[in-house]
Design brief:
The chain folds into two domains: about 210 residues, Periplasmic binding protein-like II (D-Maltodextrin-Binding Protein, domain 2); about 190 residues, D-Maltodextrin-Binding Protein, domain 2, CATH 3.40.190. Helix content is about 40%, strand content about 15%. α8 packs parallel to α9 and α15 packs antiparallel against α16. Keywords: Coiled coil, Signal, Sugar transport, Transport.
Length: about 500
């Protein structure tokens, strides 16, 4: 009897530990397997290995970091990770093949569109609904991550992924060469419309022949965000709403006066020689290092200038030109999802909970191994070693606010981010997820996307004359069925809005 009593107490302790975050073991699938042996020595179940796919360049030291990560995870939660990185351009295609073939995996990175199709795959039942776990195994990460991000990843009032806890909004910034800003004593805060930039561009064109005045590419810019427009679907379908418009009226953005004015200004810039001649055919490649450019645009949060300066190879300064609005797109910018067919849902949640609450684990997966891939300064900041064999992709892998700051970053960097988040505005369309299933809708989406791909690059870079080309673009969009899509989506967003209002009244 005495032995049974001791055994019962021991089993109760095991159960309590299993519910802890990163300090104990993951919840056991078979609690009876974790008992005291007759000799009194502890035994536990063998660690589960979870197969994890994410985006990024496969590192030469990925296996080494994976080993160090597993040593840490096994000790903390009795879980191991099979850590796989897939190249940027291949990720969406390969993950789609993995899903469609039924190949085993447990956790993956996803956003909207061609990088995991978060909402599309959620509706198809590919991702596990996480709601039942967020009050138990995942309760610590649920408390740690901004509520607006959790709201943004909801689909039909269910949560299918863990959002990266980072900036909640991704406003537009205009960045400039600091060298030229200092040389001409320019106050960049005075420039927040395309029209206002014209005399500035003229100055640089006349006096700095070694500089490209403006660098654009096929799709990297959303000048319509200056007036708070956001896409209902994505940039391939030019249907937008104003984030602050309670009516959520959907428009074909290219039929608006906003678009006409924007395209006219871009055309003027191109004809003046301010925009790079290859803009309409230039592929999206991020910021091109060491290319001397005066002005670029980009989306980001506080201190984005640090990463932009690193990417360009010279120092830049930047000014925010669009409001900080939390949209569905910004909330879904980086998500970790669980395969609905996983055999180990509790262990998956335990790992994700750990990644979002344990600084030791989060810093290892982001920076690699201390002493090999980075060193700590006397101030406790990370100094990445030259030619490091490992680079984490920060926006894809968990809570930023438990990361160490980089050398040169303000020590209060994450406090500034938290303040930025607290002052951001919530879009009226936050968490709206259109239903685009059905053969007729798919056909129209495909047709509209092809028309957009044909005209968008030329128009949005000023390469073609909008007075001649814009009417052709609009006519072909109509022939492809954009008005029918707009009507269908308007009905959906109206119903969604009414349902949300009803829920708010009940609460």
């Amino acid at each position: 009897m005495k032995f049974r009593k001791v055994l019962s107490i021991f089993m109760a302790l095991i159960l309590i530990m299993s519910l802890s975050a990163c300090s104990g073991t993951a919840p056991m699938r078979n609690p009876s397997a974790s008992t005291a042996s007759v000799s009194g020595k502890d035994s536990k179940t063998a660690p589960v290995t979870l197969k994890y796919y994410t985006i990024g360049t496969p590192d030469s030291d990925l296996e080494k970091v994976n080993k160090a990560l597993n040593e840490l995870l096994e000790k903390k939660i009795n879980v191991r990770i099979d850590y796989n990185k897939i190249n940027w351009s291949d990720y969406g295609h390969i993950l789609s093949n993995i899903i469609n073939s039924g190949t085993n995996f447990d956790i993956a990175f996803a956003t909207e569109g061609d990088q995991g199709d978060y909402s599309g795959n959620a509706v198809k039942g590919v991702w596990l609904a996480l709601d039942p776990y967020l009050s138990t195994t995942g309760r610590e990460m649920h408390a740690a991550i901004d509520p607006l991000l959790w709201e943004g990843v909801k689909i039909n009032e269910k949560i299918y992924g863990v959002p990266t806890n980072k900036e909640v909004a991704v406003p537009e910034w205009w960045m400039y060469s600091k060298e030229l800003i200092d040389r001409y004593d320019i106050d960049i805060s005075k420039y927040s419309t395309l029209e206002s930039l014209e005399p500035l561009f003229k100055l640089i064109k006349q006096n700095e022949p070694d500089y490209t005045v403006i660098e654009l590419d096929q799709y990297s810019h959303n000048f319509f965000a200056l007036e708070s427009y956001e896409y209902v679907l994505n940039k391939d379908i030019p249907l937008m709403v104003k984030s602050t418009d309670k009516s959520l009226k959907i428009v074909n953005i290219f039929e608006t006066e906003t678009a006409k004015k924007t395209l006219s200004m871009l055309r003027k810039f191109y004809k003046s020689g301010y925009i790079n001649e290859d803009a309409a055919v230039k592929l999206i490649s991020g910021l091109e290092k060491d290319l001397k450019v005066f002005w670029r645009e980009g989306g980001g949060g506080p201190y984005s200038t640090s990463s932009w300066s690193k990417d360009t190879g010279y120092e830049v300064v930047a000014h925010q030109v669009s409001p900080s609005i939390v949209t569905t797109e910004s909330a879904r910018g980086g998500i970790m999802v669980v395969n609905s067919r996983t055999k180990y849902p509790q262990e998956c949640i335990s790992f994700l909970n750990c990644l979002n609450t344990d600084p030791e684990v989060r810093n290892l997966i982001n920076f690699g191994i201390e002493g090999e891939h980075y060193a700590l300064t006397p101030q406790g900041q990370v100094e990445v070693k030259k030619d490091s064999g490992y680079t984490g992709v920060q926006y894809t892998q968990g809570n930023w606010f438990i990361l160490k700051t980089l050398k040169g970053d303000p020590r209060n960097k994450w406090d500034v981010y938290k303040n930025f988040n607290s002052e951001s505005i919530k879009s009226e369309a936050l968490d709206f997820t259109p239903d685009v299933s059905g053969a007729a809708v798919s056909t129209r989406l495909s047709a509209v996307s092809k028309v957009t791909a044909k005209y968008y690059p030329g128009l949005m870079t000023g390469t073609v004359d909008p007075e001649k080309v814009l009417p052709m673009f609009i006519n072909e969009l109509k022939a492809a069925g954009i008005d029918e899509l707009k009507n269908s989506l308007q009905q959906q967003i109206d119903e969604w809005k009414a349902k949300k209002s009803a829920v708010l009244k009940l609460n």
